[in-house]
Design a protein that fits this description.
Layout: E1 8-19, E2 22-33, E3 37-41, H1 48-55, E4 63-68, E5 71-72, H2 77-82, E6 84-87, H3 99-109, H4 114-127, H5 143-155, E7 161-165, H6 173-190, E8 193-198, E9 209-214, E10 217-222, H7 224-230, H8 236-243
Parallel strand pairs: 3-8, 3-9, 6-7, 7-8
Antiparallel strand pairs: 1-2, 1-4, 4-5, 9-10
Helix pairs in contact: 3-4, 5-6, 7-8
């Protein structure tokens, strides 16, 4: 079964969220299938982080529904969250603990037997090229390697869906490219669906699908090639800019179908 034939692992239907009368999300609907790498592309302030906070159970939507592998985030959050791996925009890892201790702690939180956890940790550290730094405090690692530890931690319990919110923030270009490549390779092997939020167009070139989010609404959902086509642009960057102009240039926001 290909990713496009697989059932939805993550489903977001008509999600709305407002803060002080401002609509941060205005009826967002999207889906991610297992084995599918979906890029959520949007300018700063588009609503990406608010959406991820709802998808990860940190915020409750004002309206709409989120399900993960059929489990409703509002009605059965334990089952839904158990199927998620998450890398937040802000690093969320103990810098003073060694890499190995951070991963073991996460395995314990998910109730993984020690023998299973040991095998998975060894495999993931080897896959990320971090086996030699397993006993080093995270603080001693480069920014790119710290993010690799967070990605390994998110994959440790073999989630159905991986959420990554601006995971390359603060990294140099080489580290960004390496993290994207590692995420694509390892999540494909694990048959996990990926929702990768970014404002960097170069990170979405090889995504299976691109969802453009702007001012709380979905403006496009389709392949990178289709995005270029509907915007009648030669590059993804110019197509993205055409769909997300500044507010003064876009009094009537438009949604472009795939």
């Amino acid at each position: 079964m290909t990713a496009t034939q697989a059932p939805l692992a993550l489903c977001c239907d008509g999600v709305r969220k407002s803060f002080g009368g401002h609509a941060a999300l205005d009826g967002v609907s999207l889906g991610v299938r297992r084995g599918e790498f979906v890029a959520l592309l949007g300018p700063n302030g588009a609503g990406k982080t608010t959406l991820f906070q709802i998808l990860s159970g940190l915020f409750v939507a004002d309206a709409g529904r989120v399900t993960v592998m059929g489990s409703d985030m509002r009605r059965d959050p334990v089952s839904a969250l158990a199927q998620l791996g998450i890398v937040f925009q802000q690093p969320a890892i103990d810098l003073d603990l060694p890499v190995l201790a951070n991963l073991r702690f996460h395995a314990d939180l998910h109730g993984l037997p020690r023998a299973v956890a040991r095998q998975r940790i060894e495999r993931l550290l080897d896959a990320f090229g971090l086996a030699g730094r397993a006993r080093a405090p995270v603080r001693e690692l480069s920014g790119g390697n710290r993010r690799k530890v967070e990605l390994a931690r998110a994959l440790l319990h073999e989630p159905a869906v991986l959420l990554l919110d601006e995971p390359t923030a603060g990294l140099d270009p080489a580290s960004r490219a390496q993290l994207v490549a590692d995420a694509r390779r390892l999540t494909a092997q694990a048959r996990a669906g990926v929702l990768w939020a970014t404002h960097l167009v170069q990170e979405v070139e090889h995504a299976d699908r691109v969802i453009v989010l702007d001012r709380g609404g979905v403006r496009f959902d389709g392949t990178p090639a289709a995005l270029r086509g509907v915007a009648e642009r030669d590059s993804l960057e110019s197509a993205f800019l055409a769909l997300t102009p500044p507010p003064s240039d876009n009094p009537a926001r438009r949604t472009v179908p795939a």
